[in-house]
Amino acid sequence: MALIRRSLGLCPQHDVLFDNLTVREHLLFYAQVSHYKIPDEVDRIIRILNLEDKRQARSKTLSGGMKRKLSIGIALIGDSKVVMLDEPTSGMDPSARRATWDLLQGEKRGRTILLTTHFMDEADLLGDRIAIMAGGELQCCGSPLFLKNKYGE
């Protein structure tokens, strides 16, 4: 069970950050929780998140979009094989959303990413398979192309 937990990455809907830790300290902390202690990986995540200039900033000083980015980075750190992202782009401006999509596309190789979103364009772009739920029940599931062919754009 411990091995399974180490291979999981989680980005909850609401950021779970410590106000007085810096961006770098957050990533180091969560890398160590995953028993992944390579500072180069922390630096790589900071770079792909485009947070180099904020690496020493305390999380309480970050904008909402930057906090979301950091939470996504925490989910990706430690080479997690299964990454669960609950509305990862919520609260981001359109350009930050697009950058996050690019980041996730670049990081999905060798991983299973389970993502919840209210944005159909996001699901279409990022999803290999999409499940649509309403009222807590599964309504349909399939590839973006299958769903478009069946239900129209």
From TrEMBL:
InterPro entries: ABC_transporter-like_ATP-bd, ABCA, P-loop_NTPase. GO terms for molecular function: ABC-type transporter activity; ATP binding; ATP hydrolysis activity; lipid transporter activity. It holds the Pfam family ABC_tran. Residues 4-90 form the ABC transporter domain. One of its GO terms (cellular component) is membrane. Keywords: Repeat, Transport. Signal peptide: none annotated. Transmembrane segments: none annotated. This is ABC transporter domain-containing protein. It comes from Stegastes partitus (bicolor damselfish). The lineage of its organism: Eukaryota, Metazoa, Chordata, Craniata, Vertebrata.
